[in-house]
Design brief:
With 452 residues, this protein is of the alpha/beta class. Helix content is 29%, strand content 23%. The chain has eleven helices and 21 strands. Strands 1, 2, 3, 4, 5, 6 and 16 form a seven-stranded mixed beta sheet that branches. The longest helix has 25 residues, at 80-104. The radius of gyration is 24 Å and the shape is globular. The N and C termini lie far apart (70 Å).
Amino acid sequence: MAYDFDLFVIGAGSGGVRAARFAAGFGARVAVAESRYLGGTCVNVGCVPKKLLVYGAHFAEDFEQAKGFGWSLAEAGFDWPTLIANKNREIHRLNGIYRNLLVNSGVTLLEGHARLVDPHTVEVDGQRCTARNILIATGGWPQIPDIPGREHAISSNEAFFLERLPKRVLVVGGGYIAVEFASIFHGLGAQTSLLYRKELFLRGFDDAVRHHLRDELGKKGLNLQFNTDITHIERQPDGSLLVTLKDGRHLETDCVFYATGRRPMLDNLGLENTSVELDPRGFIKVDEQYQTTEPSILALGDVIGRVQLTPVALAEGMAVARRLFKPEEYRPVDYAMIPTAVFSLPNIGTVGLTEDQARSQGYEVKVFESRFRPMKLTLTECQERTLMKLVVDVDSDRVLGCHMVGPEAGEIVQGLAVALKAGATKQIFDETIGVHPTAAEEFVTMRSPVGA
């Protein structure tokens, strides 16, 4: 059968665009359909605008700390509409870049909602196209629990477009999105509370990181409330929100922001017209090569629920393009030693195993930790402290995990991720000469394990 395209990609996010561009570069006839955002969640309502807002939130601390270095500043003022307008302009620029990347690669771009008609046919706003292979890369979508008054709450999608900064914000959740937005709202001057239904946020991160961040956020005045949850939300006559908690308490706020997870975006996708199956969590079931249970259909990125990070989706997109159209260059994605960052204030950077993970996998470990006040803060009244931690295998001396809470943690850990990926030992860390004076040098100067 003659098909219109060799590959039809549903979703122009990070993974879909990467797969489409490189498949076209390998000589395939490729089309991409996108109904919302060129660049996907990351560019439009995710990592990129979030990081811009984090930068904006940190200026309050910068202004305060400048006094210790002799700067006398007039009273600082913040204008939320200016930040959002400038953010929107930058995102619009990036949308154009993604459009040009696709078009200049020879990819046919269809802007509209794509729906599967059968295993080889996609319909986009009434236009039907056939393809030998179809790739689903539709990403995820934020979830707000089904409680009374949920219509009064917002998610990260809406937070980026608020007309004004709320005076009081209640952030609900314990993942990185909740922690980051609590830092953003608090840093920009909103009276912010973070509610989480369990004992401590950031499940899956090293316990030292979780406890250290909890303490630092508390010192900054962020109101942390654990072991609690919302039962319902009511709009009051003055426009504010009255929140009722499971323990019977009531809180008043101007904004309830939910960051309690994301679901795969499969709405009206037409999966029922194919043999594609979902796993028990509701994500698309794929094998190690991103092949679904329908031979002609593949899936990658957040919609398959593996490691939900933009760089991982990019790697998966490259792997799919190579396997289909340049198999001699195909390499499977290695999911070990994936670094990640949480852009809370202060930042988190981490790569490799946590201490608990290493022990549960049978390693006998030595742990090295350092907690210190960064040099930049020694001339200020700020008492924020940095945490650095290494988890080392006793038998091989290999560094299994590297964790940090502090300024530029993501930048520092990205470099160390290369070393861990290469199998660096603690001896190699010890023999590496540090850059002085920096915080990063602490990673190569820790000599005594915890408890020694």
